[in-house]
Amino acid sequence: MPDNYLQAAVEIARQAGQILREEFARPVNISYKGDEVDLVTQADKRSEAAIVARITKLFPDHAIAAEEGTGHETDSSSGYRWHVDPLDGTTNFAHGYPCFCVSLALARHGALLAAVVYNPIYEELFTAARGQGATFNGNTIHVSTIPALSTSLLCTGFPVHDRKGSPNLRYYGDFTMRSHGVRRDGSAALDLASVACGRFDGFWEFGLKSWDTAAGMLLVEEAGGKVSDFAGQPYRLGGPVVLATNSLIHEEMREVAHKIAQQEPLQLQRGD
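Now predict its structure.
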């Protein structure tokens, strides 16, 4: 992988991060994508426009999958595709909670090559390149060495749409009781980056898109962790469920997830 791919991703993420800082200091401008749950801000739009324009200029034969829909396919057979989340943690951003980031990843024929996750408020820059390890603000990082679920700190998230139909409340409760706790910070990319640097020991979530997980997935793998689905098969970007751990607790979390899946679905009561 040419070094310029990762270097370009870092530069683009920093440029987008500057836009997010500018917008974070202003009154938030919110609109909604179809309902009053799935929101989008001016910051999402400005950040994505800048990222897509820059990638297109630097790498015109690369395809771009971007959350707000301004990416594009190309007629090239290069096989390169960028997975772009211009603002992961939009709800946090809209409420003034500084837990959000820019997430960029480059893949070729589906194999991840380079990744950047950048929180511009705290100046936290996570990077990874296939076969070259992962870093946090320039220093090499590794996953944690916690050996058991019972002494682990976990993280997860919940879907924007169809929350009552999501099974994750059952998993959240069960994993909470079996660990030191489960955090829900509202940014899958930062959650995965936190697994990569050892802040969290495991992460799971349902229904994420490719731009939510691509960068974080490579960070975890290059930091020595493991990423799969609940069946233990390699996680495919956009797959129904992702499990990322320090590798030491991976099989234990999979076993627990299997037991939870055998339980009766939680029946949520609706008021009249």
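Residues 266-272 have pLDDT under 50 and may be disordered.
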